């Protein structure tokens, strides 16, 4: 499998190359040169496989040329061995139509673990083959940070510098990052929003001096391997609900458009997905883009679903590339136009292609609270604020009777106890596996939200590559 950049100018790479590179050198994102497709019989043959086996089966076409089938199976076995539920991503029924796909049974209690536990294994595997040293630079609105740190803490030949927006993540989320004491982990709180942090990270990839000195790598969903691992749970859920003989819809709490783009890829691979519902909070640029073509960013509004407080969604570029006929040079112009004024219109071609699969909805604080209360009162399920936004959208969606709707439950409710308590009266306890989080001491640097400040911090703390 070879990978191409959404901006058309970067060198094509294989799977190992894109995993280690993160962002492409032209500022674009890597996508597979074509979508591999499974036939109905092949999909039917996946039913009932243990999760790690299913993962190896679904991801196999994407890693060809870089990993053998045995190597991939071995890495999946290790990655999914640390989940606290045997099914890894169990499916829970709410009512006749509504289902929850629980993605929070990994070590840091959010869906990010599903991909980052594998990415940690992939980094280790590829780095062991060379004398290289990697410096991971990431941005988090709360969940990617702890999942990535858990996946690479203590690993030799990898440093991780993780930026979070100061004061805009929950206490549990912050502590899950800042109480990890390992010499290769460097946490930074920056003044600004997640968007500011993500822009700094992207700039570092195209800073040739920094990238060649430190071999910068990505754990955010700009890294293709992140999305690839997230495709698997769409297969796992749809198979349980009757695929390939039954169509299934998914509602996805969305911020950086990574999770829902993984669903788009699953559909391209032949999984019968009826609709993908993009659920946003009041930071609703994606809802506006999909419903009216208007992709214009404003300032980020802090909400009780902080991990989705994002305006500029990295992976939307991947959709625009594919939906717009894969013309990288035209997309580069479109994205440069967006960068200049923080606004653009989708082309007619992009809108039409997106509308064939995507629906969208926006939930405000009341919608979110009502969805949490409904799940609790009607079904005895305590859900987190991000999941609630997905569930609100799932319950509003206009779909044919008989199509089940699976909401991705992206985080454990105990990560957001205040919001959950306000809506349900219950304060969910932290699972034992995160232990004495509130007794441990924290360590993090505080920096202004400027590229120069972060660049100098990385240069001071990270180990240069060989
Ligand atoms: C709990 C939670 N839900 C939803 C999202 C949104 O996912 P994505 O950024 O892939 O759209 C995030 C952040 O990524 C998250 O941490
Ligand atoms: N919501 C994320 C933001 C980063 O998104 P990513 O999927 O690109 O890593 C977070 O919790 O950090």
Automatic annotation (TrEMBL):
This is Threonine synthase. Its cofactor is pyridoxal 5'-phosphate. It holds the Pfam family PALP. It is an enzyme of class 4 (lyase). Keywords: Amino-acid biosynthesis, Lyase, Pyridoxal phosphate, Threonine biosynthesis. The modification N6-(pyridoxal phosphate)lysine is found at residue 112. It comes from Aurantiacibacter spongiae. It catalyses: O-phospho-L-homoserine + H2O = L-threonine + phosphate. It comes from the Bacteria.
């Amino acid at each position: 499998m070879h990978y191409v950049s959404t901006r058309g100018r970067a060198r094509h790479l294989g799977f190992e190359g894109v995993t280690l590179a993160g962002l492409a050198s032209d500022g674009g994102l890597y996508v597979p040169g074509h979508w591999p497709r499974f036939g109905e019989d092949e999909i039917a043959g996946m039913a009932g496989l243990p999760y790690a086996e299913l993962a190896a089966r679904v991801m196999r076409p994407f890693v060809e040329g870089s990993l053998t089938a045995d190597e991939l199976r071995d890495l999946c076995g290790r990655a999914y061995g640390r989940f606290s539920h045997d099914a890894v991503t169990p499916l829970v029924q709410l009512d006749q139509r509504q289902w929850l796909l629980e993605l929070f049974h990994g070590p840091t209690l959010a869906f990010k673990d599903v991909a980052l536990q594998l990415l940690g294994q992939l980094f280790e595997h590829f780095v062991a083959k060379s004398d290289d040293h990697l410096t991971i630079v990431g941005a988090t609105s709360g969940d990617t940070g702890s999942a990535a740190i858990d996946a690479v803490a203590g690993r030799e030949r990898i440093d991780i510098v993780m930026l979070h927006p100061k004061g805009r993540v929950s206490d549990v989320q912050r502590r899950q990052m800042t109480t990890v004491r390992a010499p290769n982990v460097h946490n930074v709180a920056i003044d600004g929003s997640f968007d500011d942090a993500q822009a700094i990270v992207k700039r570092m990839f195209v800073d040739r001096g920094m990238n060649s000195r430190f071999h910068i790598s990505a754990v955010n969903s700009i890294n293709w391997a992140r999305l690839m691992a997230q495709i698997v749970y769409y297969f796992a859920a749809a198979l349980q609900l009757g695929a390939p003989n039954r169509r299934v819809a998914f509602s996805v709490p969305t911020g950086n458009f990574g999770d829902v783009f993984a669903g788009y890829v699953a559909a391209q691979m032949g999984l019968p997905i009826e609709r993908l519902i993009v659920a946003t909070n009041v930071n609703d640029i994606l809802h506006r883009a999909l419903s009216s073509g208007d992709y214009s960013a404003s300032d980020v509004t802090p909400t009780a679903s902080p991990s989705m407080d994002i305006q500029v969604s990295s992976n939307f570029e991947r959709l625009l590339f594919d939906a717009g006929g894969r013309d990288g040079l035209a997309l580069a112009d479109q994205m440069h136009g967006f960068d200049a004024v923080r606004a653009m219109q989708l082309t007619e071609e992009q809108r039409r292609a997106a509308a064939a699969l995507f629906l969208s909805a926006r939930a405000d604080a009341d919608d979110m609270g009502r969805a949490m209360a409904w799940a609790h009162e009607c079904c005895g399920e305590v859900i987190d604020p991000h999941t609630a936004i997905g569930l609100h959208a799932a319950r509003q969606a206009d779909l044919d009777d008989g199509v089940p709707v699976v909401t991705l439950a992206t985080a454990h409710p105990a990560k957001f106890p205040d919001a959950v308590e306000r809506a349900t009266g219950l304060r969910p306890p932290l699972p034992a596996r995160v232990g004495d989080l509130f007794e441990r001491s924290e360590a993090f640097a505080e920096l202004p939200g400027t590229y120069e400040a972060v660049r100098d911090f990385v240069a001071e703390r990270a180990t240069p590559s060989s």
